[in-house]
Amino acid sequence: MPFELFLALRYLVARRKQAFLSLISVISTVGVAVGVMALIIALALMTGLQGELRDRIVGASPHIYVWQVGEGLTDVATDMRRLKQVPHVIGASPIVLGKALVTAGEQQAFITVKGIDPATEGDVTDVSDRMRSGTLGALATRPEASLAGIAIGQVLADQLRVRVGDTVTVMTPEGPLSPFGPTMGSRRLEITGIYSLGLFEFDAAYGFVDLATAQRLLARERPDFIEVRVDDMYAAPEVARDITSRLGATYITQDWAQMNQSLFSALWLEKVAISITIGLIVMVAALNIVASLVLLVMEKSRDIAILKTMGAAAGSITAIFMLQGLIIGAIGTLVGALAGLGVTTVLDRYKLIRVPMDVYQVAYVPFKVQPDDFVLVVLAALAICFLATIYPSRQASRLDPAQALRYQ
Asked: Are residues 301 and 395 in the same domain?
């Protein structure tokens, strides 16, 4: 073992009369550990929340919306066939969107009516896989004598106090013309399915009906959009540009990143702000390391002078105190990193932190530690601790042995 490392370890374990120095070293170690743990937890929280929202939004919505300016989608079958020939496109489905008022007894709510093709909707969204009761395919398999079907979210079903088999009344502003102008359209529908996508926006305000029913309710002659799903959601912007170039300039596209740009930009900015704020804890702990090393240099001035008179180089003296500071920082970083991983694992596995779903879109706070974030925090903490050792170590190496031993 190099004598510099031996002395650094020896100085960390202070004798009884130097217990105060050991206490400061312990406080410095705890400060680094708390800072690293807090930073890992904060980054895991923001990463987990961003990833959870992204996955749920992309699961509830298509990766790309396609529509045509002018007369609209006049030949949906041809457009869908051409879209499926675009590289990376794995699914396409036509939809109709419109606003409506749904009532069930004395309960009522404003919703977005989404007309879908039940046979192809599962190719572009996860709605069919998230059915709590009933099936999405039941929208297209209704007996001729029965009411048309509608699938609603779990939150909306609780609000309306309905379940599968109950009936609701859906009213839309696009009703038939009368001598006095347009009238409200109204139709009774039967609840054929209840889904739960995990997003309040969809579970509380969307109703899925088959395409023909939606066109009658909303007075549409043809679908409004074609939904598209790609094999890699991060390639959606590039695929959207490719679709426009292949189908022509009259076709407009909008991908999921464009539709949710403000949300994810805000989450990213929040992640950076929290990281900087909590990172100051590590810097405060580094100041404690500076203080502890300065006090140690003052306490060990006689030992430093003796080492220098025995031939120890200035670089060796510097290394002794740098190693002591790095040991404090390394132990604190290791403890904090392990504690951060343990806390985030427990919080995420058991879903301990619950939040209002109507505010945060998720029922609990998810935690996800990304390897690159973890490595960055560890390296940054070690770098800060190393920088904290430079000044006191250099002061120790410049100590004049004659001045230090004069009054000994």
From this structure: yes
